[in-house]
Amino acid sequence: MTLDETDEKILKNLLVDARQSARQLALKLGMSTVTVLSRIKKLEKEKIIKGYTAIIDHEKIGYSLTAIIEIMAKNDKVVDIEDEISKFENVCGVYDITGSTDTIIIAKFKERNELSKFVKGLAAIPNVENTITHVVLNTAKEDFRLS
Length: 147
Description:
It holds the Pfam family AsnC_trans_reg. It is built from five helices and four strands. By secondary structure, the chain is α+β, with helices and mostly antiparallel strands. Helix 2 (22-29) crosses helix 3. The mean pLDDT is 94.
């Protein structure tokens, strides 16, 4: 599906505030509510809009540790490992990357012992050759919205 300028305007506005109604969005963009609703339904059907969520300050709910973990796999089992890791509750992102590392994980934890247990659990996953864990000291920006 090719996005036109109207689709892009709708998406940008939803990224800023996904709670706004189609009516509010239509008024802001100068188009009919039916047009906005139709466009949103099309974007949802095409899985461009995968869902709606709140942006949470993880630190304020106790997740004060962010870890970036590199994983090296053996036996070309990267996809299997990534599928397994994607199931873990603390994992926010799993990326199949280029370079000497096969996979990067971003995960959040409340306490160091949770991180320690998690990393030890990663090492126990079949075909995980090595892990390198980086603990984030300070978050300058964390926002995956493209706005």
